[in-house]
Amino acid sequence: ALAGIALCALVALLVLGPGHWSIASRHFLLGAALPPEVVPVRKIFVKPGDVTIRRNSDLAIQAAVEGFDPETATVYVRFADQNDWERAPMQRGAEGEFEFKLFALRSPFTYYVDADGTRSGEHRVTLKDLPRLKHVRLVYDYPDWTGLDTEVDDETRAIRAVAGTNVTVEIETDEPLENPVLIHDGESRALNPKGQRNAGTLEVEKP
Q: pLDDT by residue (tens digit) across 75-131?
């Protein structure tokens, strides 16, 4: 009799019980799969992901969560010359994302973010030694009506001139550049390389 009553109660729970009770009971007792809308999906999206940056530069790591609202998040970092993971708490941003910044990076590393037991995928940061800008020179060739001679500016990088002025931009780097271009108002034109120096000319169309 007791077994019959228990069986009837079980059937009622499976069929007539509240949604979460009946779904969970069928999953637990009968092995039925839970529908996707019932299973909470917890994800962590990390930026910038896999990336290559300049050696000795800084990197900001951001993490956004989906499906849960953790109070804290932790970033784990393992540098190429280390076996153990280092960890640090992330700061909560104004829009709910978590942030952490690494400074003056000198070694490649792998990182991931963990929050309330949910872990993001691992991402790798590669470092590269890129050419550095040593010097910029601006040569102004003013229009004839101004009566001004050619002017050379070795101090500033901001172009200031009247319309019709041709400005030659000369760039010097510590290493040769690959396919350098000069971009002006969204349009790019190739720079003429001369060893570690590159030069290009643009026309000022408005003051």
A: 999 999 899 999 999 999 888 899 999 999 999 999 999 999 999 999 999 999 888
User: What's the DSSP call for residue 41?
Assistant: P
Cα 181 from Cα 174, distance rounded (Å)? 17
Residue 42 buriedness (CB in 10 A; 0-12 / 13-18 / 19+): middle
Contact partners, residue 199, CB within 8 Å, separation at least 6:
168, 169, 170, 171, 191, 192
pLDDT digits (tens, 9 = 90+) for 167-185: 999 999 988 888 899 888 8
Assigned token pair, 137: 């020179």
3-state secondary structure of 28: helix
Give the pairing of strands 197-203 and 192-194: antiparallel
